[in-house]
Amino acid sequence: MARFHDLTVTDVHKTIRDAVVVTLKPENGAADAFDFTQGQYLTFRRDFDGEELRRSYSICAGKDDGILQVGIKRVEGGAFSTWANEHLQVGDTLQAMSPMGSFFTEINPGIARQYLGFAGGSGVTPVLSILKTTLAREPKSSFTLVYANKGVNTIMFREELEDLKNQFMGRLNVIHVLESDAQDIELFTGLVTEEKCAQLFEHWIDIKSVDTAFICGPEPMMLGIAAALRTAGLSDSQIKFELFASAQPGRLKRKVVSVDAASSANQTTAAITLDGATQTVTSPKDVSILDAALQNAMDAPYACKAGVCSTCRCKVLEGEVEMVANHALEDYEVSQGYVLSCQSFPLTDKVVVDYDQ
Amino acid sequence: MAEDMSIESYLAAGGVLTNPTNVPPRYRAELMKLMATFVDSELAGAAGFADIINQGPGIKERIAAAKIVLEKTDNADRVLQIMGDFGADTARYATHHPWTARLARDADIGATRSEHDMRLAVFNYPLQGWTDAVVMNLLMGRAVGVQLSEFSQVSYQPLAEAFRAVIPLEARHAELAQEGFERLMQSDPEAVQASVDYWWPRVAASFGSAASSRADSLKSMGLRKTENAALRARWENETGAILIRLGLVPGT
Q1: pLDDT at B215 > cutoff 60
Q2: Which helix (H) or strand (E) holds B31?
Q3: For A224, left (φ over 0), alpha (ψ -120 to 50), or beta?
Q4: Mean pLDDT by 10 residues, chain A (357 residues)
Q5: DSSP state of B114
Q6: Residue B3 and residue A192: Cβ atoms within 8 Å?
Q7: Are the Cβ atoms of B83 and A355 closer than 8 angstroms?
Q8: Nearest CB partner across the interface for A219, out of B10, B157, B217
Q9: Which residues of B touch A190 (CB under 8 A)?
Q10: Structural domains in chain B, sorted by start
């Protein structure tokens, strides 16, 4: 079950105009819980106007930096990232879960590998952690980073990457591809598309020697790069992805409790939405929401039917249900109206539930 | 670069998801079902096979059977950990259910799952002794190989990676079964053929119906690529060839 720890902010600095780098120190003896692997991310939680938001940000520090550091780029309309960029201060306390994610490969000090990283904008944060750790701990390996940005002034960690090139002389190669700023080499202007990658593989990157590729960026960029890598002969197991969709779910609306929620009869009318279609069924109140759906030939999702796995999660939009067992949903999900439909029985004469939210 | 693209169209175009934070609700549900099917089948398969260990005719056979039980349980754990990332109570999950429970040998359930778990229907039938267990393990082991080659391409990267790690272990289980199988052919080919006749249609049914109403939506989520019928045909060809080479008649 997810557990949050307190972390104290020990440093906040801007890397570009709308992105901050936040250094964190685990409190209350939680240091061991934050012994991360390069490329992992932290999930933070914070209350905004009585509603809990959770957001994940990648660690940008390398294993040998001796600190825990994340990069947070401000997203248009994003409550958490805007708050972090405008109000977060040294001394503040943040809450985060232990590092998660599998965007890394095992470090092997004796091996000589060729790594290729692709980063789009703030997607550089986990890639930076990976390349710093790899170059420090695999002295025979080298790393090429293709780094896509709008323009020169939106490049996160630009100076740090320059320093790393000097520190790991000849083992780190950075190719900046800029969408709107013209560069000496025409190939380095524009978007990093499948075609652009194919051209890079012709003269600039020896794709045949690449052992592992890392990609972190927006969806279209990931698709294009992955296609180019597969065409060039890389297998799925050689391509590591990390996706943080630009559209993380926004604030959730609270469920409506109907005013006339009197429960006189033993029957309830349940409006159940699944795969975009809503079916209204009448069912006894001692039949779970899940069984009511299944008995009416709806292909509602479930697995354990014991409140353990959370496959049958749905959202109550109207009315009240009683969830008799819950070993899978967390308090914040429950407060947003989510229930385990296999364990939920209608209390009101009308309920409206949605499996699509 | 910051073009907007919905997760749905990203997935339909072959995109890969990497963590629970941006997984759409219906995708989450289908992914959980897929993982529960694997975990429940491995746990039920291991539990059923555990009872057979001591029926092995020699120490090598018992070691092989014990290894299979251990590794199938371990494979279940790998995928259960990913379910845990989505909130499942992994400790409770592993023990909340009697995985050794079986139906009658002649129960006719087709491809229907039981009410209470997601194991493939074939794991609801009881094993009858060592020969029967070896035959079932060969036929189902070959089927698992075909099914994992499909599911190692799912669009949820952590699960695809777990399946890729499981593939060589499961392939070895099928090899062990085949070794035991060849020995049994020397002593009691009639019993082997009888077990093949029993298990063949039941394993074949584990590929699901030819016309699945969910196939298109699973395909657009990147959770399936190949039709059930094509996977089943591949298994029938590959496994049928092995049986014929050993002097047996594949089932129908």
Answers
A1: yes
A2: helix B25-50
A3: alpha
A4: 85 93 93 94 88 88 96 87 94 94 93 96 96 97 96 94 96 95 86 95 95 94 95 95 63 41 71 92 92 91 87 94 90 91 93 94
A5: P
A6: no
A7: no
A8: B10
A9: none
A10: 20-245 (1.20.1260.10)
B2 has a chain A CB within 8 A of its CB: yes
Query: What is the pLDDT at residue A245?
Result: 56
B5 against A253, higher pLDDT: B5
pTM of the model: 0.84
Alpha-carbon span B88 to B90, nearest angstrom? 6
Q: Which of chain A's residues have a Cβ under 8 Å away from the Cβ of B92? A: 308, 327
Domain A267-354 belongs to what topology? Answer: Ubiquitin-like (UB roll) (3.10.20)
B14 touching A (Cβ < 8 Å): yes
Contact A311 B4 (CB under 8 A): no
Q: Provide the chain A residues 57-96 that lie in CB contact (below 8 A) with chain B.
A: none
**Residues in contact with B69: Cβ distance below 8 Å, sequence separation at least 6, in sequence order:** B46, B49, B50, B53
φ/ψ region of A307 (left if φ > 0, alpha if ψ in -120 to 50, else beta) reads: left
Q: How many interface pairs between A and B have CB atoms less than 8 angstroms apart?
A: 150
A267 shares contact with chain B (CB less than 8 Å) = no
What number does CATH give the domain A4-97? 2.40.30.10
Q: What is the CATH number of domain A114-242?
A: 3.40.50.80
